[in-house]
């Protein structure tokens, strides 16, 4: 430890700055500057097609935001997607991690099968699942199976009642493998001696799970839940590729609405106001979740 401190003291300041300054510059350029610009634009009436006509509008964009029914609908859609995905995806990942942890035959193939979807672009996966969800039984795999099983074809992405759930199912399938690997690393870090001691004390598999496995993987599980929540709140690609926010705005999320206002309608001021509020919501939820978990 002392040797490391001496090494750090001997390191020239210029050498350290050579590596730190570019990182800080990139962080400011691609994170801090856009955030500040968005905050500034949120107080302006600014249209990309008429930049010379931009003017300061004060809180008008925010007043419009809180009276916009589409904003509240996209917020509900985003919250619903986030809550369901956190439970469904992380539960699936945890179960898969528990199965993969067992030293059974073919576990390597099983692990690769569930991790492979993640290395495929979400855009490509979304296009693939659009074909799978095709309402025509002669073209859509799921409806072909439903018809063979004696059921009526489902509209999936074309029905407001099932569109969001269809996207949720696909999203969980795509990302569960990544979280499975993280949870698997946490499970493998639990000393086997703890299980042996619990078994000697007469603890069965269920008791070992609740008193050894869960406490041992708690911090990793918390991390996975936080990552899933933040990622789910930013949902954009799947609705954009698969449904374009429809049908009847049932899959339109906050990020899709921001894109629509900013790049389709060229209303940068209003899009920036939504972005600022969205940023506040995500940060608030993250800090609240962190505080609740710490208290427990």
In short:
The chain has 296 residues and is mostly helical. It has a single domain, classed as MetI-like fold (Orthogonal Bundle). 72% of the residues lie in helices and 1% in strands.
Q: What does this protein structure show overall?
A:
The protein is mainly alpha-helical and 296 residues long. The chain has a single domain, classed as MetI-like (MetI-like fold). It has 13 helices and two strands. The chain has a two-stranded antiparallel ribbon. Helix 5 (107-115) crosses helix 8 and helix 10 runs antiparallel to helix 13 (268-295). The longest helix is centred in the N-terminal third of the chain and has 33 residues, at 69-101. The radius of gyration is 24 Å and the shape is globular.
CATH class: Mainly Alpha
Q: Describe the main β-sheet briefly.
A: 2 strands, antiparallel
CATH H-level homologous superfamily name: MetI-like
Number of domains: 1
| CATH topology name | MetI-like fold
- Percent of residues in beta strands? under 5%
H and E order: HHEEHHHHHHHHHHH
**Global mean pLDDT:** 86
User: Could you say what the CATH architecture is?
Assistant: Orthogonal Bundle
Structural class: mainly alpha
Enumerate how many helices there are, as a single number. 13
Main sheet strand line-up: 1-2
How many angstroms separate the termini? 34 Å
Global shape: globular
Main location: membrane
GO cellular component, one term: plasma membrane
Keywords: Cell membrane, Membrane, Transmembrane, Transmembrane helix, Transport
Organism: Treponema socranskii subsp. socranskii VPI DR56BR1116 = ATCC 35536
């Amino acid at each position: 430890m002392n040797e490391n401190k001496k090494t750090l003291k001997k390191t020239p300041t210029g050498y350290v700055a050579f590596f730190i300054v570019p990182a800080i510059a990139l962080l400011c350029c691609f994170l801090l500057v856009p955030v500040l610009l968005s905050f500034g634009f949120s107080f302006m009436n600014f249209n990309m097609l008429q930049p010379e006509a931009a003017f300061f509008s004060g809180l008008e964009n925010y007043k419009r935001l809180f009276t916009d029914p589409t904003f509240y609908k996209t917020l509900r859609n985003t919250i619903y997607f986030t809550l369901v995905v956190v439970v469904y995806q992380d539960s699936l990942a945890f179960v898969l991690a528990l199965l993969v942890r067992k030293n059974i035959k073919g576990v390597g193939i099983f692990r690769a099968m569930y991790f492979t979807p993640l290395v495929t672009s979400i855009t490509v996966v979304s296009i693939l699942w659009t074909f799978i969800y095709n309402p025509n039984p002669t073209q859509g795999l799921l409806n072909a199976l439903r018809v063979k099983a004696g059921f009526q074809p489902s509209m999936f992405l074309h029905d407001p009642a099932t569109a969001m759930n269809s996207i949720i199912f696909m999203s969980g399938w795509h990302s569960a493998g990544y979280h499975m690997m993280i949870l698997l690393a946490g499970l493998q870090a639990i000393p086997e001696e703890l299980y042996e001691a619990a078994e000697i004390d007469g603890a069965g598999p269920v008791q070992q799970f609740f008193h050894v496995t869960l406490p041992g993987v708690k911090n990793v599980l918390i991390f996975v839940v936080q990552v899933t929540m933040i990622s789910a709140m930013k949902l954009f690609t799947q609705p954009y590729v698969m449904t374009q926010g429809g049908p009847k705005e049932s899959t339109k999320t906050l990020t899709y609405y921001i894109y629509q206002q900013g790049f389709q309608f060229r209303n940068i001021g209003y899009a920036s106001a939504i972005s600022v509020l969205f940023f506040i919501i995500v940060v608030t939820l993250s800090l609240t979740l962190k505080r609740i978990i710490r208290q427990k």
